[in-house]
Design goal:
Radius of gyration: 23 Å
Number of helices: 9
Structural class: alpha/beta
Shape: elongated
Number of domains: 2
Largest sheet: 8 strands, mixed
CATH architecture of the largest domain: 3-Layer(bba) Sandwich
Number of strands: 20
Distance between the termini: 33 Å
CATH class of the largest domain: Alpha Beta
Bound molecules: flavin-adenine dinucleotide
Length: 356
């Protein structure tokens, strides 16, 4: 809200006073007011486990960041992907599990406790070509930029979906995009399951799901698998996996509450039929949220930000990446949180050298 318009220094000060921001020394510490600009030492883009963990570490190191948590950025609410799911059973510290949204509320509460300045806006434009880095929020692209000495990008990724008829009804009621996250839940135990995709991830997820399901169908559009030879052999050897080549999904069906079948079409025989399944897992790839830094930072061929192995350092000194936006492999809340910690420590070191 502070940044909705280009403000004079006095207007900005008065707005900050109205919002009681001047009363909090911890928040004021990282706001340096120049003519009409807001400057941060550290800015975090994103609001998932990576972002809030980074903010907790930075706050405790007395460099409380400003976090742009997004306003339904990429269709995901503040709090990130975990807000789109139900129970989380694999985040340490919660032996009885908890809802994804609740976990993110707790992380946010904890980061705010240490001075995280959370702004519910989406960053739509970034300029990393000169220092300080420049950022603009959505709908304010023609206004004065926010400037920052360092930047943590933790904008996450989203699983690609097929948007089949019935998908909305049975999303998280039988349909998932994460076998590791959801495979073990009771509704899938000893039930027929299906994985859609023909690459390494699909083969890996199908193999993983055989621990829980009575049978796993691997639904492949083409008449071959794209996966590496070793992964192909693994699924071919597994008695619980049946590969359905030349098959495309058409509709998710169920009793209104849970998924119980998938209408598929064998495109070679032009034959449609209901495949009785209780779980459907998409393994057709993820899209990292990296549009805003495209062309300004090194990325791999699928758009994930490249980091120096074992660190959060990107190709631009002072810019750090954490969470799913730089991790096409593990994609878990705990690994995202871990890399958020790394980004905070890396940013802290960078800033201490900058201000030496
Ligand atoms: C349905 C589902 C179930 C899952 N279940 C589990 C589970 O049980 N256990 C587990 O460990 N993991 C689970 N995961 C994976 C886990 O959610 C992710 O690994 C984790 O959330 C990634 O965290 P992140 O910090 O990288 O960011 P994300 O959670 O991806 O959040 C990124 C946030 O940044 C915001 N953002 C993006 N662009 C911008 C921008 N330009 N400006 C401002 N904000 C922006 C987005 O709106 C989003 O809110 C699940 C994922 C899904 C989809």
């Amino acid at each position: 809200m502070i940044l909705n318009k280009t403000l004079t220094r006095l207007q900005l000060q008065s707005k900050l006073k109205q919002k009681n921001l001047f009363n909090s020394s911890i928040k004021f510490k990282h706001l340096i007011i120049s003519k009409a600009m807001v400057h941060n030492k550290v800015t975090i883009i994103g609001s998932g486990p990576a972002a809030h963990t980074a903010a907790i570490y930075l706050g405790r190191a007395e460099i409380p960041p400003t976090m742009y948590e997004g306003m339904m950025a990429n269709g995901i609410a503040p709090g990130g992907q975990l807000t789109t799911t139900t129970e989380i059973e694999n985040f340490p510290g919660f032996p009885n599990g908890l809802m994804g949204g609740e976990l993110m509320d707790k992380m946010k509460e904890q980061s705010i406790k240490f001075g995280n300045n959370v702004i519910t806006e989406t960053i739509s434009k970034v300029d990393l070509s000169s220092r300080p880095f420049k950022l603009w929020t959505e709908f304010n692209e023609d206004e004065e930029p926010i400037t920052t000495d360092s930047l943590i990008i933790s904008t996450g990724a989203s699983a690609k979906r097929l948007h089949l008829p019935g998908e909305e009804t049975y999303w998280q009621q039988g349909i998932s995009a994460c076998a590791v996250c959801d495979g073990a839940v009771p509704i899938f135990r000893n039930k027929p399951l299906a994985v859609i995709g023909g690459g390494d991830s699909a083969c890996e997820e199908a193999s993983f799901l055989t621990k829980y399901g009575s049978k796993v169908y691997l639904i492949v559009r083409k008449d071959y698998l794209r996966a590496s030879t070793i992964m192909q052999r693994r699924v071919e050897k597994n008695d619980k996996i049946e590969i359905l080549f030349n098959t495309v999904p058409l509709e998710a069906k169920g009793d209104g509450k849970f998924l119980n079948a998938l209408l598929v079409n064998n495109v070679k025989e032009n034959r449609q039929y209901d495949l009785p399944i209780n779980g459907l897992f998409y393994a057709i790839g993820h899209k990292p949220a990296t549009e805003i830094v495209k062309g300004q930072i090194d990325m791999d061929e699928t758009g994930y930000i490249k980091t120096v192995p074992g660190t959060s350092l990107t190709s631009v000194p002072g810019v750090f990446a954490a969470g799913d936006v730089q991790d096409s492999r593990y994609r878990q809340a705990i690994t995202s949180a871990g890399s958020g910690c790394m980004a905070a420590l890396d940013a802290e070191k960078y800033l201490s050298e900058l201000y030496e």
